[in-house]
Automatic annotation (TrEMBL):
In the N-terminal section; belongs to the zinc metallo-hydrolase group 3 family. It holds the Pfam family Flavodoxin_1. This is FprA family A-type flavoprotein. Residues 256-394 form the Flavodoxin-like domain. The lineage of its organism: Bacteria, Pseudomonadati, Thermodesulfobacteriota, Syntrophorhabdia, Syntrophorhabdales. One of its GO terms (molecular function) is FMN binding.
Amino acid sequence: MAAVKIKPDIYWVGAIDWAVRDFHGYITPNGTTYNNYLINDQQVTLVDAVKHDFASSTIENIKGIVDPSKIVNLVINHIEPDHASAIGSLMALMPNAVIYITERGRKGLERYTDTSGWTFKVVKTGDTLNTGSYNLLFLETPMLHWPDSMVTYVKEAKLLISQDAFGQHMATAARFDDEFLECASLFELEDAVWDYYANILMPFGQLVKAKIGEIVKAGLEIDMIAPDHGIIWRKDPGKIIKMYSDIAEGNADQRVVIIYDTMWHSTELMTIPIVQGIKDEGVDCKVIKLRASPTSVAIKEFWKARGCLIGTPTINNVMFPSVAEFLHHLGGLRPKNRMMGAFGSYGWGGGGVKEALESGRKMGLEMVEPGVQCVYKPSAEDETKCYEFGKDFARKVKEYQGKFA
Ligand code: FEO
């Protein structure tokens, strides 16, 4: 897609990746974008690069505005290869550009790329760059979500180029939130934000809160947030900042998500009365079968809901492999402020449900124990137990939700 002007003399010059479905293991059914921005000021400045496969796209976009050899500054907010791996192709066209980057960014970039002959200007929070009409302010955001991360604020444009923060993995012809919402729903957009936050930023909620607090305290006027993935927020950038603050504060829907797998359908059959019990208690419920769903979708749905029930058969005295894999991955994301319980079937020796509960306990979640189990296939009596279990769990989720009101 051709370059798009987002502010006077500032252009989106990125690339749309309609086809990517596996983004380092994170399944992206809607593709993604790699956004970068050209400031065609007296000192022509490029903010961020793109993924190497898309180097020619961004170069063509830049050439549509200015000869790349005229670029004298390259700001690298983040060195992850989806943003920085085209840097070699770009630097070949603008060998004299000075690279503005954090110290950790510079060291990291050297591990990925041959940087010999390039000129770096290491920056830290509060450092600025004047490009003529614009003043750029750099703010380090370490561990949001890599150690090198920073954001760039363009003062006179009231523009925050926020790198991964506030992004979404979504390929779309729309560049702005208002354009997107002309033909799609707010739910679709917000769901993409939840998806991205859950899979990328979940471990860093306290840092998200702290950084948003710093930006507010610094009194930066922001009327546009331009992330490095997905749409640009210009309609109401305060909305996405509030959404991030709420998520970081522990916001979640009053819902139970059942995340399960099954061998011979017994654990699956248990979900039916459990769902009914949850619904009869007036709580929304969603069901995700692990081998039928990408892990990233299960992670998103886990994070959107206040309560989660893990369903696992027992195999060789342990959890079913897909359930174990999911919980292992979830543990690494260090979830907080969520309630968890477990259920499942076993044949001659249990163990799966016990392990699932141990896993939730280790994560520090609000646990509802001991869960419910059945032998082989659920009997009518087991179904009643499952129904009551669902009701009881939903009641507890409602009580727990009250703590976050
Ligand atoms: Fe989109 Fe952390 O890279």
